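Final report, closing paragraph on structural work. Over the funding period we assembled a curated collection of sequence-structure pairs, and we close with a single example.
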Amino acid sequence: MSAGTAGAHGRIVVVGSLNADLTIYCERLPLPGETVHGTGFAVNPGGKSANQAVAASLLGGAVSLIGAVGDDSNGEMLQASTAGAGVDISHVRTSHSAATGVAVIAVDAHGENNIIISAGANGTLAPADVAASADAFDGASVVCLCLEVGLETVEAAARMGHDAGATVLLNLSPYGEIPQSLADLSDVLLVNAHEASLFLGSGGAGSGEMPGAKADDAAWDQVRQRFAERGLQQVLVTLGANGSVVLDSRAAGDGRVTRIAPVKVNAVDTTGAGDAFTGAVAARIAAGDPLAEAAAFASVAAALAATRKGTQAAYAGVADVDRMRAL
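Its predicted structure, as stored:
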């Protein structure tokens, strides 16, 4: 199936956060208690869910976003950015009691970052908002979730997606412990190696330490089994510059562990690259791709995002991804 058919098999519903990104660029990230000089500053649209929605839409997905912004200029910026990327924002509520969420980001000369978020209006998103947006879930193929809004809201959306027959894709970021009921509703778990380690370590079965970058498939198969014991049959573990690993307990034989090679680029800003990856996975699952194929496509989309400053403005379209994959 070609990338140009993304979204042809169903819609994507993204439930969660919209943030204004306040980004300072610097030569290096400050140590605790230290002040460093910045080399630039920008205010950009962000928030994990808004980013994922934009990424999926630019890659051909038909996307609806459910969230909340404040009655302020940042909220207007976010609604304009997501709608401008083709996302349906009819279920983004304007809060008159809370300001739009904010992320304060520092990015160093190597593109690495640290981020602090303040929930703002995202903290007002409630299960009632999910219930009020029930029509968005009708016929949906994928429901995309993260943990920048309350767990009760995330679980309500997961249940709505599950009951609608959609694939529930949970990005366990920013990391937090989740109830087993949410794990049971999640069809695909997307985590980085640190999040995977925390999740498996919280299960009471010993260390959640992940295999090293050069570990063989047998080591990763043990990780797959541990996720399966926690009720998660399909897991995608991202490894930064070392690519990713797809752990699929529903597959047979060698298909249970698939290594996705990294895409080498000169990174300028890695902020939001993980969201580009998640949005791309959602778009390709909605288009009918198996998880491993979706991950390979997403790896390219995320790499391209890291070559430009910012988040949503840095995201690639289908033609860009196809061009790089053909090299």
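The CA atoms of residues 221 and 257 lie 6 Å apart. The radius of gyration is 19 Å. We thank the funder for supporting this effort.
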